[in-house]
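Just scan my protein:

. . .
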Amino acid sequence: MNKQKVIVFMPAHNEEESIGDVIKRVPRSFHPSVDVKVLVINDGSTDRTVEVARRAGADHIITFEKNRGLGAAVREGLRASFDLHAHIGVMIDADGEYPPEQIPELLEPIFKGEADYTMGSRFLGTINGMKLHRRLGNYCFTLLQCVLLRKWIYDGQSGMRAFSRQAMEHAEIIHDYNYAQVLTLNLVRKGFRVKEIPILYYVRTTGRSFIKFKSYMSSVLPAIIQEMKKPVEKVYVEEQAHYIPSDEGTNHFAK
């Protein structure tokens, strides 16, 4: 069969200390039917993020002249991956907290026809060093998603996700500050199948997070309300669109 193109996109704002290592760790040849490229969304960085990313092997770089916010960067990553003819898009943070080595595991349910949208779950896997207030905030926002969707989710704020081509096409992020809750609400309400994959997680040791607790609370809750008030149309989901037959070696996805 023809190779399936996977684009791993990374929103990045002043991540010169970590982004090079993350790019180098992205698995490029883990399966004979998969071609992997890396896209960086440079969200108004004022450091050497672009230079470091290019030297580390980024295939595509899109730069915002001014910082627009994580939601805007993820929206652009989804749009650009779709326009670059990706069959599947993978989002991963550029700060090194999430394990690029587990990208094949994130992709496996999509290639098996079991899901259209996958999330790396820290709470199903391992969390090292997350502060108590962040953990409690994650629990609260994830519980809210569960209630609104009537579906159990373990980690609604994960910074590691994969999207089928249809999911990329139909995903809507209604605000620029953040994306995590509204994106999942939007896709699940439209009928896309979501699955969580256990991952290892390590709190960042370089740079600074550009998500602030007070801003997060004041921005995200209104966006959740706005998303739930907005009518959405169910999408006819092509469940086997990215299926790789077992005789092509789906065991390549295992670690």
The chain has a mean pLDDT of 89. The radius of gyration is 17 Å. The longest strand covers residues 117-128. The first helix runs from residue 19 to 25.
